[in-house]
Amino acid sequence: MAWSKEQMVRRAALELKDGDVVNLGIGMPTLVANEVPPDVEVWLHSENGLLGMGPFPYEGEEDPKLINAGKQTVTVLPGGSVFDSALSFGMIRGGHIDVCILGGMEVSERGDLANWKVPGKRVTGMGGAMDLVSGSKRVVVLMTHVSKEGESKLLKECALPLTGERCVDRVITELGVLDVTGRGFELVELAEGVSLEQIRASTAAAVWDARDSRGAP
C-alpha cells in the first residue's frame, strides 16, 4: 500500500503553519490550496503577482482574469492583493516566502533538486523555481518516489539539470516523509502499509530511520 495522490496532498498541507506565506508550485502542489486545515490561516503566493489566493473556484464561478502561475483560475481571499511580477519576485528574492511546496523530478541525498528540464525535451522556461528554492525559508518537495519506469527519484546524485543545490528540506512521496540532513535522507514518517524495507528498496541512496536512535541504513 501507499498514499494516494489525495493523501499526499493532504499530508503536504500539514506542513503549513498559521501565518505562513506559502508558494505552491505547478502540478500536484497547487492542490494543497484546497487542503489547508481550517484552523490554519496562510497567505498563498503566486509568482505572477498574487498574495492571498484561496481554493480553486467552483465550476461556473471562474474569473479568467484571476490565474496562478500555472494559468489555472483561482480565487482571492479577503485581504488578498494583486501586483506586478517584479514585486512578486522581489518578495521571493528578499526572503519573504516562509514555505514553498514544489514538484520534483529528482532529489539528491544532499538536497539538490532537479525539476525544470529533461534534456532533449522542449520546455517553455524555468519559471520561478530557481528563485523559490534559493529565496524561500523552507523547501518541501511533493513528488512520486519512483518514475513511471520504476526507477527511484531519490538519488545519491541528480542526473538531470539542477534547479538548485542543497536546497530541499523535506520530501513527501507516496511512500512517506523524508528529511534531507547532513547524513542524507532521514525517514520521519511512513505511509500506511509501507515498510521501512520497501522505502529503502525504492530509494537509490541510503535512508536513515530518524524514528530509531540507531537509525543505520
Task: Outline the fold blueprint.
Layout: H1 5-13, E1 21-24, E2 43-46, E3 50-53, E4 76-82, H2 85-93, E5 99-102, E6 106-108, E7 113-114, H3 129-135, E8 138-142, E9 154-155, E10 170-172, E11 176-181, E12 184-190, H4 196-201, E13 207-209
Parallel strand pairs: 1-2, 1-5, 5-8, 6-9, 8-10, 12-13
Antiparallel strand pairs: 2-3, 3-4, 6-7, 10-11, 11-12
Give the key terms.
13 strands, alpha/beta, 217 residues
How many helices does DSSP assign?
Answer: 4
The secondary-structure element order is HEEEEHEEEHEEEEEHE
Shape category: globular
The CATH homologous superfamily is called Glutaconate Coenzyme A-transferase
Would you write up a description of this structure?
The chain is an alpha/beta fold and about 220 residues long. The chain has one domain (about 5-210): Glutaconate Coenzyme A-transferase. Helices cover about 15% and strands about 25% of the residues. It has helices spanning about 5-15, 85-95, 130-135, 195-200; strands at about 20-25, 45, 50-55, 75-80, 100, 105-110, 115, 140, 155, 170, 175-180, 185-190, 205-210.
Brief synopsis:
Helix content is 14%, strand content 25%.
